[in-house]
Amino acid sequence: MPVSLYASPPGVLFPRGSPQEWGQAARQPPGLLPAQCRAFSNNKILVELDTSSGVATMKFKSPPVNSLSLDFLTEFCISLEKLENDRACRGLIITSAVPRVFSSGLDINEMCGKSREHYAEFWRAVQEMWIRLYSSNMVTVAAINGSSPAGGCLIALTCDYRIMVENPKYIIGLNEAQLGIVAPFWFKDTFVKAVGHRVAERSLQLGLLHSVPEAHRIGLVDEVVPEEKLQEKAAAVVAQWLALPDHARQLTKSMMRKAVLDHMLAHREEDIQNFVNFISKDSIQKSLSMYMEMLKKKKS
Ligand SMILES: CCCCC/C=C\C/C=C\CCC/C=C/C(=O)SCCNC(=O)CCNC(=O)[C@H](O)C(C)(C)COP(=O)(O)OP(=O)(O)OC[C@H]1O[C@@H](n2cnc3c(N)ncnc32)[C@H](O)[C@@H]1OP(=O)(O)O
Question: Among 65, 101, 190, 264, which residue has the most ligand 1 atoms within 8 Å of its CB, making it the best to mutate?
Answer without folding.
Answer: 65
